[in-house]
Design brief:
By secondary structure, the protein is of the alpha/beta class. The chain has helices spanning 14-17, 31-43, 58-68, 94-101, 105-111, 126-147, 159-170, 210-216, and strands at residues 2-9, 51-54, 75-77, 151-157, 187-193, 196-204.
Length: 220
């Protein structure tokens, strides 16, 4: 028996469009982000899903509502699946943070590829972020693995949240999490069987490519 986890990053947000650190800031999807979610909704329109979870931030909730509006399944929000809290960095671009905190230790650690040691000013550490996300995910997956029930669960969350989950599944050090690309509405799939994680798909955005849409037009 296995749990199939469908991991989806939210559509483009206003923070993404401005290249700002959003983290726990509650920002909306852009028009482009809505269109991206609609394309993924079309791609997953026939996918059987037992449960849908998302973070409690608007960009995740809105994306989940668009993708799964016709699946007749409740969307359950959970604050433990939020993006990492960037604290004082939130609302700023990388260039603006460099200008404001250029001599700050956290910026130096970030640039030296040691993000696991970073505790964002007035925000969250990567270590605590990892514990928060994985405790919730392990509880969610574990209750079905213990009962030996097959389940397909969708989780619509944030780039950082997905990267942490993938690092744990692949047994990769967290300091490499930012080397895993996660584009807007990226699709990822992990199968959990007997406590083991098997990664099937990472950062798939085929649904955003025009050639794919044109080939699907005659299906229904």
């Amino acid at each position: 028996m296995a749990v199939k986890l469908i991991l989806i990053r939210h559509g483009e947000s206003e923070g993404n469009a401005r290249r700002q650190f959003s983290g726990s800031q509650d920002v909306n999807l852009t028009d482009q982000g809505i269109k991206q979610a609609e394309r993924l909704a079309f791609r997953l329109r026939k996918l059987p899903v037992d449960e849908v979870y998302c973070s409690d931030l608007r960009r995740s909730q809105h994306t989940a509502e668009i993708i799964f509006k016709n699946h007749q399944v409740d969307i359950i929000t959970n604050s433990n699946f939020r993006e990492i809290n960037f604290g004082a960095w939130e609302g700023y671009t990388f260039e603006e943070i460099m200008a404001k905190y250029g001599a700050n230790t956290e910026i130096k650690l970030w640039m030296s590829n040691l993000p696991e040691e970073v505790h964002f000013p007035e925000g969250e550490s990567l270590s605590n972020f990892n514990k928060r996300v994985m405790k919730e995910l392990n509880t969610l997956v574990g209750k079905y693995n213990q009962k030996r029930i097959n389940k397909t669960i969708a989780l619509v969350v944030h780039g950082g949240t997905i990267r942490v989950i993938l690092c744990n599944a692949l047994k990769i050090n967290l300091k490499y999490m930012w080397n895993i690309e996660q584009h807007s509405t990226a699709l990822n799939i992990i199968n959990y069987y007997e406590g083991q994680a098997f990664v099937r798909l990472i950062n798939d955005t085929t649904h955003l490519e025009d050639w794919w849409i044109s080939q699907q037009s005659g299906l229904d």
